[in-house]
Amino acid sequence: MTREEKAVVIDELSQKFASTPYFYITNASGMSVDEVNQLRRLCFEKGVEYRVIKNTLIRKALETLSTDYSSFDASVLKGFSGVMFHPESGKVPAQLIKEFRKKSGKDKLKLKGASVDYSLFVGEDQLELLIALKSKQELLGEVIGLLQSPAKNVVSALQSGGNKLAGILKTLSEKEEQ
């Protein structure tokens, strides 16, 4: 690869990292061709872009960004690296890794590091935490549900109380008529 080609790849990666707040760096070394094809098929089904990229190119692309990715240097950007991008959720790639492991029955796909809304997660032990993360939409839904709950209780109490009051007034009016 010539310097010009590397510069183009670095520029393209920089733009991709800047525009995608959710990306995972994985290690898929030791996988057979069939396993890699299964992984790529699963990525396609889930809407995850998976690319194998040289560590030096990833490092140089991350250096051009305003976010500090220096914690990725020592432990993450070594060995074989594949990058998973998802435009909408930081949870989908983590679920994909777990699902792939379940289907293949092997732990060959390892999480090296992840960036979720510019928060960094380093190491394999972070996978379960990333799966448990809630998206912004899920959190907003919970907050709205909590805010609506007291209002619904007040409305239902008023409605049920109104029915009781109407029943009492009806009974009293019937007694007066007799």
Distinctive features:
elongated; 2 domains; five-stranded antiparallel sheet; 7 helices; alpha+beta; 178 residues; Alpha-Beta Plaits
What is the topological layout?
Elements: H1 3-19, E1 22-27, H2 33-46, E2 49-52, H3 55-63, H4 71-75, E3 82-85, H5 92-104, E4 110-116, E5 119-122, H6 127-132, H7 136-177
Antiparallel strand pairs: 1-3, 1-4, 2-3, 4-5
Helix pairs in contact: 1-3, 2-5
Provide structural commentary.
- With 178 residues, the chain is an alpha+beta fold.
- The chain folds into two domains: 3-133, Alpha-Beta Plaits (2-Layer Sandwich); 135-178.
- Helix content is 60%, strand content 14%.
- The chain has a five-stranded antiparallel sheet with strand order 2-3-1-4-5.
- It is elongated and about 100 Å long.
- The termini are far apart.
- The relative contact order is 0.14.
- The mean pLDDT is 82.
Mean pLDDT: 82
Q: Element order, helices and strands?
A: HEHEHHEHEEHH
Annotation, overall tally of beta strands:
5
Provide the spatial order of strands within the biggest beta sheet: 2-3-1-4-5
Q: Specify Rg, calculated over alpha carbons.
A: 27 Å
Q: Which consecutive residue ranges, at least 5 long each, have pLDDT under 50?
A: none
Structural class: alpha+beta
- Overall structural domain count: 2
DSSP helical segment count: 7
> How many strands, what sense, and barrel or not for the largest sheet?
5 strands, antiparallel
- Output the CATH homologous superfamily of the largest domain: Ribosomal protein L10, N-terminal RNA-binding domain
Strand content: 5-15%
Distance from N terminus to C terminus (CA atoms, Å) equals: 102 Å
Q: What's the CATH class of the largest domain, please?
A: Alpha Beta
CATH topology of the largest domain: Alpha-Beta Plaits
How much helix is in the residues? 55-70%
The general outline is elongated
Provide the CATH architecture of the largest domain: 2-Layer Sandwich
